[in-house]
Amino acid sequence: MSYDLIVVGSGPGGYVAAIRASQLGLKTAIVERSELGGICLNWGCIPTKALLKSASVFEYINHAADFGITVKGADADFPAIVKRSREVANGMSNGIQFLMKKNKIDVIKGTATLKAGKKIDVKGDDGKTTEYSATNIIIATGARSRELPNLPQDGKKIIGYREAMVLPKLPKKMVVVGSGAIGSEFAYFYNAMGVDVTIVEFMPNIVPVEDEDVSKQLERSFKKAGIKVMTNSSVESVDTKGSGCKVL
């Protein structure tokens, strides 16, 4: 099948480009191998903000006395918090599906491979490969996190951002390697949930790409909240033998 435009990837860059192209009269298709909306909507910006909102509300409740309000017996239902974040993400993804239908954009499910001559092969979940062609192709596949060679993720004890968003239960302790936006968000969230959190950052300041005064203020806030912050530090290895982890 031939299109005026095929967009590979349905994240914020991809689906917005597809919608605008269709509005301008182009016959448009979008290829997505997972959930519509991409990582940001399904496993990044949106669900993490839902988790952070729950953490913020819980913190307000725990400090209600500071505002002249008495609250007794407040408790965080961790599975319910995770469930809510997934529902928020799923609702947004369904909204993207609606926008695709509204703007008459064909959604092609599968993994795309770019070919010569402005063509792509899309391998579906059933293993079948279909060829498509287009006058223009936009590659909007985004990026993925890089695994550190000395910290291979097993999805159980050494985990990435996806597992961190859907843990079945709260751990007693957690070491967050890296203090960029994602690491800092998870550190704040799990600390608010009562987890003993330690941040290990290789650079001199946490959130190292931000202004130094921002980094220093955030570090003060984290330490006040009970988060241990180790800068100019690195994790050399992790021993996963036994029930927990030994971080070196």
Strand order of the largest sheet: 3-2-1-6-5-4
Number of strands: 11
Number of domain modules: 2
Average pLDDT for all residues: 95
CATH architecture heading of the largest domain:
3-Layer(bba) Sandwich
> What is the ordering of alpha helices and beta strands?
EHEHHHEEEEHEHEHEEE
How many alpha or pi helices?
A: 7
Q: Which class best fits the helix and strand makeup? A: alpha/beta
Largest sheet: 6 strands, mixed
Specify the CATH homologous superfamily of the largest domain: FAD/NAD(P)-binding domain
Percent of residues in beta strands = 15-25%
Radius of gyration from CA coordinates: 22 Å
Low-confidence spans = none
Distance between the termini: 55 Å
Overall 3D geometry? globular
Tell me roughly what share of residues is in helical segments: 25-40%
CATH top level of the largest domain?
Alpha Beta
CATH topology of the largest domain: FAD/NAD(P)-binding domain
Q: Which descriptors apply to this entry?
A:
single chain, about 250 residues, alpha/beta, FAD/NAD(P)-binding domain, six-stranded mixed β-sheet, three-stranded parallel β-sheet, 7 helices, about 35% helix, about 20% strand, globular
